[in-house]
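During the second year of the project, the team shifted from modelling isolated chains to modelling whole assemblies. The rationale, set out in the original proposal, was that interfaces cannot be judged from single-chain predictions alone. As a representative example for this report, we include one of the complexes processed in the last quarter. Its constituent sequences, exactly as entered into the pipeline, are reproduced here:
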Amino acid sequence: MTKARVNWFRLNRSLHRDIGYFCIGMTLIFAISGIAVNHNDDWNPDYSVELSQLQLAPRDWLALSDRELSQILVEQVPDAAGVKATHWSHPGEFKVFLQDASNLTLDLTRHSLEVEKISKRPLLNEFNRLHLNETHKAWVIFSDLYAGMLIFLAISALFMVKGRHSPWRKRGLLVLAGIALPAGFILW
Amino acid sequence: MLPRMIKALPLAVLLTGLSVQAEPLNFGSPVDATKVTPISTLMATPDNYLQAPVTIEGTVVAVCQKRGCWMSIASDKRFQNLKIKVKDGDMVFPMSAKGSKAIATGMLQKHELDLEATRKMMAYQAKEQGESFDPATITEGMNYYQLVPVGVSILD
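Output from the structure prediction step:
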């Protein structure tokens, strides 16, 4: 009986295809979150912050108790959630933190109220949490496996095509360019 | 069957979100909530607390907007805060933590500011508080303290 020979070329293509399919979701999550987190200096990738100012009628704010003060401030904002906590930053500034993550800041000298509405960016917030390993420890193991699969995809890609489009001929220049570009950033 | 499941999905997501939010949000090692030192005690003689880990608690009153790399914790004394600061990415504190109670265990760190840095910091604080500031009134550098946590728990 003759032993069936393994066709390494076909096996490599099949594995590359199936692991590639499996990695689509993870790659999209990491890539989208990667762009979002890359621009940390320009925006907050997890939360959108909306600021608005209200001018209040002047009054002696210091004559009020913290409870009365927060009550009056909450009444200025339509659909305001319940009060989570209050805080005096300094004698001229009083803050009210609301249950829905909004915050009210009263400037006692200018009699102005700043309303800060904080809301999670849907999906992006979850993607970033996964990308930055802020979830379960098991995610670290899973993302290590994903990284291993990406290494496989990169190496197996070198053996996917035979003939004139193979990376071992002219198109190898593309492979070299992909290595040279990051190397250039390190050296530059 | 499938359309019913699709209709029920938003409710399931909402319920999951509610149950997750009620749990404390933990970062790093567990905090030692039994050994809390009031921030006012710590800041009265901060140099006495530089050698061993300390645990503090208080309301989160500010969070780094860009990277979530620091939070200001309100002291038990009025108008006093202590900043907890981590290396970018070590822990990412959510902006929604404002107003929540937090417990943090870590090392108190001392930064000796020179005269110029002290004037800059005082000018910034005065601007924040809407007060006038004359740099000439500051004649020597000061020390600045912050906590570098190994564990943080944000309670709701």
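The first strand of chain A starts at residue 47 and ends at 55. Helices of chain A lie at 8-38, 66-75, 124-131, 137-156, 172-187.
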